[in-house]
Design brief:
There is one protein chain. The protein is an alpha/beta fold. It contains 13 helices and 55 strands. The longest helix has 40 residues, at 2-41. It starts with a helix and ends in a 16-residue tail after the last helix.
Amino acid sequence: MASIGSKLCDMSIMFLIVFMLFYMQQCKCSELDLLLSMKTSMKDPLGSLHDWIPSQSFCNWKGVVCDDSSHVAKIELSGKNLSGKLSETIFNFPYVESIDLSNNQLYGEIPSNFSSCLALRFLNLSNNNFTGALPQGSTIPLLETLDLSNNMITGKIPKNIGLFSRLKVVDFGGNVLVGSIPKSIANISSLEFLTLASNQLTGEIPRELGLMKKLKLIYMGYNNFSGRIPEEIGELTSLYHLDLVYNNLTGEIPLSLGNLTNLRYLFLYINKLTGPIPISLFNLKKMVSLDLSDNFLSGEIPELISQLHNLEVLQLFANNFTGRIPNALTSLPHLQVLQLWSNKLTGEIPYDLGRYNNLTILDLSTNNLTGKIPESICYSGHLFKLILFSNSLGGEIPASLSHCKSLQRVRLQNNQLTGELSPEFTKLPLVYFLDISGNNLSGPISERKWDMPALQMLNLARNKFFGTLPESFGSKNLENLDLAENGFYGTIPKNIGQLSELMELKLGSNKLSGEIPDELSSCRKIVSLDLSHNQLSGQIPTSLSEMPVLSLLDLSMNELSGEIPPDLGKVESLVLVNISHNHFRGNLPSTGAFLAINSSAVVGNQLCSRGDEITSGLPPCKSLKKSSVWWFFLTCLLGILVLLVFSALVVVFIQRRRELKLKKVESTQDGNNWEIQFFDSKASKSITLDDILGIGVSYKEFSEISNTQIFVKKLMNVNIPTSFWTNIQELGNIRHPNVVKILAACKSEKGGILVYEYVEGKDLREAIRVMSWERRQKVAIGIARALKYLHCSCSPSIFVGDLSPRKVIVDGKDEARLRLSLPTMGFTSSKGYCSTAYLGPEISEYKGISEKSDIYGFGLLLIELLTGRNPTDAEFGKRESIVDWARYCYSECHLETWVEPIMKSDAVNNQNKIVEMMNVALQCTASEPAARPCASDVAKTLDSFVRSNSCGLGLKRCSSV
């Protein structure tokens, strides 16, 4: 019997061995099938899976790592540009411990068999396009890292999240999650890193977080959390990073945070926190960066701040702090960034500030500071941004600043500074932005050699400088030059024509004399030219008519004479002209900006008007009395000839005016009575109403009619407002290189039609797909310039309304062309405003379309240019989610995770500029309209920083000034 039992046992063992060998072989075959199934489900444009073929062992495939038993242990396919839906097979590998598919283009929902990988320890699906809810159901018992950040996942955080008991890293940031944080999360006692930033989470931050003693990092910024910061967070003694920014947190900062002795980074900016800075915070000796800005904090900044010996960044701006800047700041050896702007600080800047610090950025603007600028402020030799404007600082500009070779951006305007500019100050090599306007600075500036090769913006206005103007400022990159309201005399230097990048020149309110130099017309990019309130003489150079983008021209209060060059009225971009109080004579041009010129802009001359509609207040040319005897006899002698010539001119002029006047026409096609208004004489000769009606339904169609290409937008079956002709007249007169011309408008009882010039190109959404960083940058600047023109140069201001990609045409030269329409057309809401993601959130409250709503739409366009994502995608959920996502990306500073994939190669050399443009985009999309910049500032900023290396330290936040 024993022998029989022994044999049976041996047979059982043999059977088990055979079964195990068979199972292992089957498992290997199954893993091969699973991998091939994965490959089939994904698109692989880079060929990263080219060696995934059955003839080779899958353990040798790229992205596959096997264990000692030749089973799949790791799948590592990060950043391979893979797309497609994620197959369920990914979670069927029995031995896989790590799956990394981050930084791809995968989409769809995360498979429901998420928890089938019982051996899984690491899962990273971040930076894809996954949608749907977070996986529900059972957990993965060994999982330690779960990273699903930067997708478009919606819904709530599962209540059973606490069952993932071995998790150390949870990152759900950059999604569209809603609801509150489940209290069960406190059951994950092993959790070290918790990131829920940039979602739409609400409610209070759970006090139960205080039970998670191993937490090292908490990042919950860019949500809608409310209530107070829990005292219990102060029990997390392992915490080194706490970020709760951009929420609606209220109350005072808890005293208990002073117990976080390992805390290095504390970010609480953009909340509604009140009260003083808790004294306990100054016990945090390891603190590196402290940012409490944009709150309602008050009280004084304590001298105890000297205890934070490791502090590198201190940002307390936009609060209600009072008192003096603590002297203790001067003793912090590692301090690099100090931003205290927009508070109520008084007294002097600490005498030794900068002497023992390592300052790179100092911004104390918009306070009530007095005294002098400390000599020691650039002692480190690394200071590149110095912002002290709008205080009451006096004395001279410190001599030490003249030797501060690291300076790049200097803003000292609107103080009480005195003295002269030192010869060294005008030779700073890296300064690209210099504004010292609105002070009491004096002396000549032409005696100094200006050698500032990086200079783009120079503002010396409203000081007491005198003497002649320098022949050069040592820079060919100057874009804005403002020397107004000083005592400069002499002539305008001819060398100014060499400033090929100049866009704005202000020399008004000086004592300049002589003629306007012809060379000025070589500045082909000038948009605004102000030479008013001087003693200039001679005639207006006819060459000014050749400046292609000139929009504002102010020559008032001078000694200019002669006739107005007729071609000046043909400058299409010219909108505002002021020639008052000179000695001009003759007739006023009856074209362009002179058609509807205000009387105050021409008064004080000897001009007459030949226009049919006299808005200038000038007498008609035909009624002027010719008092001179010689003129009378000359007229008699040449009467017949003059009469014939004049009659011919009048006929031509009247004919042209008639062509552009409102006409009533009955269509031969639909039998309706139409009113048609032309805004272009060439179009009035070559296009008929039947031509327009024959084109068909609009938006993308154009027609060649008498060699005139047009684009027609039909608005049928809508109630055309009574203000149609008034509003469309304003749009029809617009001439700007970044705005599409409206050639004509039609109106009947059944609807309206707008006729545009045809622009060969693609709308922004289509064009962006293949555009490099440089091309996108050019498009952004073009749109900004168009907005600046519409908002600042048109009177009244013109607002776009729906500033969406379909409104922007990108032509063959990568110039952006904005197509306008009446804001009241095509509306869907009861208040007459378009329902679109590109309008500011305030529009839903019926606050009306404004400059700030246009700026919000422009901010969204910038985000789209930078990331390739747009706010109209359904996966983003609420309209504002793309802004939240962008804020999260920007604050994390992981450029490669959010920049458009096609631009990643460009990002290596343009990282600072791309980050700065995102900074502009986020300012433009501020939820409060008042916090958004104006179009003028946006255009200046984009024009300036794209040619510089501003904010070059890669800091997470840069001063808005």
